[in-house]
Specification:
The chain has 383 residues and is an all-alpha fold. 84% of the residues lie in helices and 0% in strands. The protein is built from 12 helices and no strands. The N and C termini lie far apart (135 Å). 28% of the residues are buried.
Length: 383
Amino acid sequence: MENKLEQDQEAITVLYSNLSTMNISTTDKSSCNSLQCYMVLTTQEQKAICSICFLAGPVTFLANILVLLTIASSTALRRRPSYLFISSLALADMFASCFFTISFLDFHLFSQSDDADLYLFKLGGVTMAFTGSVGSLLLTALDRYLCIYQASNYKLLLTRTRAKLAILLLWCVTIIISFLPLMGWRCKTWLDPPCSRLFPYVDHHYLACWTGLQLVLLFLIMVAYALILWKANRHEANMGGPKLGRQSVKGQARMRMDIQLAHTFSLILLILAVCWVPVLSFMLVDVRVTLTNKQRRMFAFCSTLCLVNSCVNPLLYALRCRELRGEMLALIECCKACREHALGHAHGQITDSSSGKKSTNHAVSGSNPDIISGSADRQQNSI
């Protein structure tokens, strides 16, 4: 009787362990507690994205560094709030070229499985860069709006100090929002609701809030530029009339500059919308619907458009903004002149040194026979 009881207990234990194992494996299969579930790209797709990142990343970094150096080296540009906002945008795009390229390739190409804190830190850097970029574009749009609609009070309303405070406030809010998942607003599970299927450890509610914030910023930028372009068209119509006096010529020159800047930033806005709308659309869908692997692969490609946007921005400044382009060319010419001067100075020192050595050797070689013969004669006479 006791043997039978022990056999029944062993059978129950084995059955329970088998059921537990089946339950665990089923749970693992449904929840997919591994970062490998987010690495959905094929080999060909990895090569394509790798080519885009390796091409756009360094170009974006160097171009934005050039914009920052140009503004920093020019006293006239540093004093204007417009170029302070452009500096903020260039700084954000430079961060994007570093953080996005490194983290994106590290995850999708090299299949680096980081822990939650390290992954969210990298993701926070990418979020900070792109949020700062959109926020800087909003500040630039508001600056153009005030410059056109409040032309008489523009310098009183937007001083250099207020522009710096606006940029400082923007980056403080951006850093806090971007690193909220690292601070604790994260998903406790990896793929179970309410976790995102696009970003591990990211809560659906945080993703919805951040996507909504980006859409609000884009909407405000669109409204500001719509008003700017409407006013610019009226300026173009008014410039067709007679030109009266020196003050009128100055006012029309200022209008032309405002219209040119408005068109430049409108083109930037168009590129921004083309690059960001697909990504934000996938994020909104991810909040409500479970994405398939094919959709997540499409999202990975759309994400590279954000890097392309950061690459295009400085090119637009250099090609369309005459004042910035002039300062950039002057900086490049100055660097060339300094380099040629340094090379010429070094070459001159080498030439002088070599000529000095030659003259010394010539003098020594010319005097050596007489000295040797004279000393030999003296030795012979003494003997």
